[in-house]
Amino acid sequence: MISSKNFTKKFHWSEIGAIDLRYCRGMPRNWDKGYQQIFHKLKEFLELQQAAGNAIAVNPSFETLHWVLDKAGYLSEMQQKGIPTIPTVIWPPSSEEFDLLDYFNRNGVDRIVLKPAVGSGTNGLEFINRVKG
């Protein structure tokens, strides 16, 4: 895991114009236990730098990162715009139980993938196969 103390002391921030987060290594892959905390700390740090006169750009932007990590949001947006996506059902946790057998039958599929609505990588990824009896 990235140590914020090491990170902030490692560079001469007045000489840095941009941070590219696409190539960060060692960042935790779990949103609740890592990303969210790192983004919050990085955003605070960048605001302090900006107040000191160092305008440091972040690529991709925080807005883009949050959009990408919110699978339910970006898949809904893409579907509404008619952009082809993998067949997706966004099931809010507060809703009624999800009937897997009905979904398998209605969609003619024997396998589905469950992913958390917010997260990254394969954290929380589960494969569910129809059991044929």
List the helices and strands and how they pair.
Layout: H1 4-10, E1 18-20, H2 31-51, E2 57-59, H3 62-69, H4 71-80, H5 100-107, E3 111-114, E4 126-129
Parallel strand pairs: 1-2
Antiparallel strand pairs: 3-4
Describe the structure.
- With 133 residues, the chain is an alpha+beta fold.
- The chain is 41% helix and 11% strand.
- It has helices at 4-10, 31-51, 62-69, 71-80, 100-107, and strands spanning 18-20, 57-59, 111-114, 126-129.
- The strands form two sheets. The chain has a two-stranded parallel sheet with strand order 1-2. It has a two-stranded antiparallel sheet with strand order 3-4.
- Helix 2 (31-51) links the parallel strand 1 (18-20) and strand 2.
- The longest helix has 21 residues, at 31-51.
- The termini are far apart.
- The mean pLDDT is 76.
The number of helical elements comes to: 5
Question: What spatial form do the alpha-carbon principal axes imply?
Answer: elongated
Which stretches are low in confidence, meaning pLDDT under 50 for 5 or more residues running? none
**Average of per-residue pLDDT values:** 76
H and E string:
HEHEHHHEE
Structural class, by secondary structure, is alpha+beta
Cross-sheet strand order for the largest sheet: 1-2
Tally of DSSP β-strands: 4
Q: Report the biggest beta sheet as strand number plus sense, adding barrel if it closes.
A: 2 strands, parallel
As a whole number of angstroms, the C-alpha radius of gyration is 20 Å
Q: How far do the termini sit from each other?
A: 46 Å
Helix content: 40-55%
- Beta percentage is 5-15%
